[in-house]
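input
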Amino acid sequence: MSTEAYQAKYGKMLDPKEVSVNLPDGRVITFETGRIAKQARGSAVAKMGDAFVLSTVCYGEEKDGDFFPLTVEYREKSYAAGRLPGGYSKREPGRPSDEEILSARIIDRPIRPMFPENFTREVQVIVQVLSSDKKFAPDVLGVSAASLSIGLSELPFEQQVAAVRVAVVDGQNIVMPTYDQVAVADLDLVVAGTEDSVCMVEGGAYEVSEDTMIGAILAGHEVIKEMCKAQQQLVDRCSKPKMELKPKFVGEEHDKLVATVKEVVWDELNKDVHSNMVKTDFYPAMADLCAKMLEDSRILAIIGEGEAQDPKLAADAKGIFSELERTAMREMILNEGVRLDGRTTTEVRPIEIEMGVLPRAHGSAIFQRGETQGLVICTLGTKADEQRFESLQGEGAKSYMLHYNFPPFSVGECKKLGLSRREIGHGHLAERSLAAVLPLPEDFPYTIRVVSEIMESNGSSSMASVCGGCLSLMDAGVPIKAPV
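output
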């Protein structure tokens, strides 16, 4: 078949459709589809200046379950900056760098809530930086590209999402700032949202006021609104027909199951919720009550017994139990002002601190808040100990690092040891929290490494890492500007 005949039958193979958004300073963000990666379920490109970010989405077969297996991958290619990878192998490594993992998490967080609650197909979003701009980071464009690629696919997606970076320099809000502007900014913020609302904020600041923070968020959201409208224009023109999503629970049989589960467990469940158990007692109690419920004759009459048991109805019964557990806790908090451990809504968990617990460490501290415990260690080194890294902007070095470890025993589980994306993300959060109070390198010419070992967890272990990290720095004699 000739090219002309093929195009007459199927259309042009390279047939891009574009929409554009103007930023307040006159720069333009362009969204495109129909030219690259057309066999993906959805593909889209976000462009600004020389930056060219591609997102693709694919999905698997429908599966029963209560878990949404969404995977977001973000990759920066060396050729995007006209560079060769460093080291002996001139190929990008298989494992993403910490920076790529952090960017993937920024993309994941705002798009995940836009999928329906009962959607359980496996979904994979891959965002690749194909061309980078020397002036600004391309990572936030990945949120918009990912949102658009999903919107163009058959996947159900509630609203289009976009993200921008906002820097505050000399009191001015700058949307999509350059690297140089971020370097001198009082506030560096990533804001993500829909046309209606803000759904994610992440950033760091040098002790700015609440008004400055709110102003930056609102300035970012004004641009986000226009970006979401532009995405929707492409979705309206080019989207594939959306798949039909079956309701999670339907029919009289389910209604009967809901009523029966509540009849069987509610009184005992409510009693356990009000008993102020510690976590290590409460979780087993809930598991035992759920197992007891599944063996009750009233439940077995609905879901069946032995080989005749309907696995979907059994799974539904467990899901109903979980919803009742959540309802009982929520009602206790809202109606009685009491939380699961017996505290009121204004009480903080008990806090205990020990300093200098490891004799050979330069600085160490245990920070315990309720059932969350962090053992945090500070080690000082010379300039030769700095961490070398390579990015699209070239090579660089870090003289301050905070690493976060979350071993399975901290929550009483048996799991394979390994560095998870969550550990990298929490470490980055805590690292940024303390960076603003560290002394300048010329005043304190040491390499600083803080390691947070989470020994127990029931509540924010990243917060414990910040508090414990601050204590370990003080124990090591680092002249921080203020406690955090």
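quick obs: Residues 210-238 form the longest helix (29 residues).
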